[in-house]
Design brief:
By secondary structure, this protein is of the alpha/beta class. Helices cover about 55% and strands about 15% of the residues. The chain has eight helices and five strands. The chain starts with a strand and ends with a helix. Bound molecules: adenosine-5'-triphosphate, (3R,4S,5R)-3,4,5-trihydroxycyclohex-1-ENE-1-carboxylic acid and magnesium ion (MG). The site of adenosine-5'-triphosphate has 19 residues, from helix 1 and helix 8.
């Protein structure tokens, strides 16, 4: 199997679905956000605070480039599409699955979240980011899955069926 890359906005469920899909398909899972924290020994919030978003994007691309291109499920960070080199890498090497989620649903899921630096911005900034990103996800996807009002298990099963 070619590697699957899960993309989508913060809170769309990339990490959650990646784990579940990995168990269901018996394929190893890597989460680029977790990998960045492990390799660079800082939390994402610390990297943003101490070194800035540009440094985080550099680390993120480095981690992505080192993930296996066969037989893996990769949960990416919400901003992976910000860099063309990441998009090219994913498109060339595997299948890109976009977890499409509305802004309102994301706002519900992340209501109490304090771990995502870009989710602590004001509502207008978050909406602007969401609209700009939506276009990037849509443009660069092989498979689009709507996630609103579906459980993580339902979404996982849907992706499994779409891969057949
Ligand atoms: N289908 C779903 N329905 C309801 N809640 C969900 C669903 N999928 C994920 N969640 C919840 O939403 C929150 C964010 O999910 P998750 O961390 O998987 O998102 P993510 O896409 O990996 O975000 P990020 O880009 O920031 O890494 C978690 O609390 C998770 O339990
Ligand atoms: O949407 C984004 O830019 C981000 C999403 C998260 O997955 C993390 O990669 C980080 O918080 C940045
Ligand atoms: Mg995640």
């Amino acid at each position: 199997m070619k590697t699957l890359y899960l993309i989508g906005f913060m809170g769309s469920g990339k990490s959650t679905i990646g784990e579940m899909l990995s168990s269901l398909l018996h394929v190893p899972h890597i989460d680029t956000d977790n990998m960045v924290e492990e390799v660079y020994e800082q939390t994402i919030a610390e990297i943003f605070q101490n070194n800035g978003e540009g440094t985080f994007r550099m680390y993120e691309s480095e981690v992505l480039k080192n993930t296996p291109v066969q037989n893996h499920i990769i949960s990416t960070g919400g901003g992976i599409v910000e860099r063309d080199e990441n998009v090219l890498f994913m498109k060339e090497n595997g299948v890109v699955v976009y977890l499409e989620t509305s802004f309102d649903e994301i706002a519900e899921r992340l209501e109490y979240d304090q771990t995502r630096p870009l989710w602590s911005k004001n509502v207008q900034e978050k909406k602007d980011l969401f609209i700009r990103r939506q276009k990037l996800y849509e443009k660069n996807t092989d498979i689009l899955v709507h996630t609103d009002n579906k459980s993580a298990i339902e979404i996982t099963e849907e992706i499994k069926a779409l891969l057949k």
